[in-house]
Please model this.
Amino acid sequence: MDSGIVKIAEELGLHRWQVENTLRLFDDGATIPFISRYRKEVTGSLDEQVLQEIKSRYEKLRELNKRRESVIASVSQQGKLTPELRARIESASTMSELEDIYLPFRPRRRTRATVAREKGLEPLAALLFRQQERDPVAVAGKYVTGEVKSIDEALAGASDIIAEWISESEKSRMLLRKIMERESVITSRVVKGKEEDGAKFRDYFEWSGPLPRIPSHRLHAMLRGESEGYLRIKISPPDQEGAIEKVKSLFVKGANASSHLVALAVEDGCRRLILPSLESEIRSRSKERADEDAIAVFASNLRQLLLAPPLGRKRVMAIDPGFRTGCKVVCLDSLGSLLHNETIYPHPPRNQTALAVKKIVSLAEAYKIEAIAIGNGTAGRETEEMIRMIRFDSEISIFMVNEAGASIYSASEVAREEFPDYDVTVRGAVSIGRRLTDPLAELVKIDPRSIGVGQYQHDVNQGRLREALDTVVESCVNAVGVEINTASRHLLSYVSGLGPQLAANIVEYRSQNGPFRSRTEIRSVKRMGEKAFEQSAGFLRIRDAENPLDGSAVHPESYYVVEKMASDAGCSVAELMSNRDIRAKISLDNYFTESCGLPTLKDILRELDKPGRDPRKMLEEFRFADVRSIDDLKEGETVPGIVRNITRFGAFVDIGVKQDGLVHISNLASGYIDDPAKVVSVNQQVRVLILSVDKERSRIQLSMKGIEQ
Model:
């Protein structure tokens, strides 16, 4: 695996020792957040993205080596493993190269060439393939015996064998693969009779373009159309005849009758065997690349959503709006605990607006409400308008909250476990309120695929998607840190080194023994071993602990450094943390150790400056324009909005009319933009110009060009 480490280092522009040390930490059970935050000296301060790349590439190398061992074992069992062949297998650097080498030795299904071999025609094929026989008909006549009834049958069987040899040739496959990878064209056609039913795929009824340059969203759309039975897709070289001629030039050596037969066999091998095989391979690889691109966009959007600004510990009234079924109202304390719930009916058909307003005012006063969260679903804008008209005795902030996935949560086992005595409407309203105070803590309870960001999430490889999204959730949870005395089991499960079982054990210990008083006490949790404690302790916060460092991101293994700093300064740790002037006099050169170098010391000082600081931005109140439906929109007007989703082709913006508008990538900024994520982020407040409104198709085209944000 040494060569693999060198390759990874070269590809990522790293030193070999950085890759080796990182892999050693992975093998020792360390997580990416832990390595990135607390092992900077060991890796050379590699960030999470690079660590993930090392991990992914190493896993692919392990897969390649595992397959390599399997191939060697298979060929060896056949008694065909020569030193030269072993060397070629061991030097193969890609899976496709390895499979090309193995192809002639792979156990075959019954083919036309197999049948021809059983009839004893392989010697004839070998004679013809040498292209020295000027009269192949005469030679073939010698093989008309037994099962071979005619000369034509003998020549056809020999040609089938030659075609299979061509299809198994590394040279021919490599040549055509390079052409396909660089120049292949993807063509999409509508299935006859499906024109009307498949109208949503109309853009691809007659479509053709270079596969290497096709955007991921377009390929996924075409593949979905094919899977649903509306489209037929073909991938082929741009000049198939020219490509086949190039393969012929590798094998056809003359112009005699034997050469002519070989040329026909080469053409047959290319058309019938190699090109269909490579089409499947290229299709699979293109789908994989498109999946990676879509998953990357999804992961980026999810990160921004999870790290959305929290309101913080406030007493919140949350409203899940509705017309016929009414608006479910819940009141939560500053920790998100449910204090009260009931239903009001301010909208049609009941129209009990006055009674609803009276009830809202009463609840706000009784529970000392500091903020109101309103779901942005059905009746959301109408409810917001009603609430904003109320004059409260105290200042109350009002927020529209994206409720995507709230219904998924409310019907989940997680919600039933949290609120066994309440129905889905209450659970949904509680989720809306908690999303306002701490989006991250609430959204981790929901399958990320249900949150409403990303594109074609159901079309990509689900295993890779889940792995990527779990990685994002873990990264965000550990970047923010978790208050161990208030965090849910689900939030704790994403803390580095914990997982579901230890998270459950922490909650159980907390319920039996009361709040944790120190990080040291965490060791008392059932099954909390030294490795788990090492990985998790720095990310677990304990407010108001006796040791103030327990509420910070300083790892317990580095407490001694801070204590020495305080001792040298003649003050307590608490005084060191609260007094900037004392910290300014610290010389880091005095505290270097083998395991605690400059990167860690700088991190410690930054943390002492703002211990336990939430890295997320402050939440800002937002108001939509006075529009509630698509009928209220006027082309040429500028309105405020919130970015809800980002794709490779643009951003979808909520402007308060239930249907998000699209800011195409060409309208995001005045200059050239290659990635919308470089211009906007999920949950960003923006101002947009209404370019066009298609009421029939419920499509809104927006622009941010030239608009000051």
Remarks:
- The chain has a mean pLDDT of 93.
- Residues 257-306 form the longest helix (50 residues).
- The two ends are 51 Å apart (CA to CA).
- The chain has 29 helices and 15 strands.
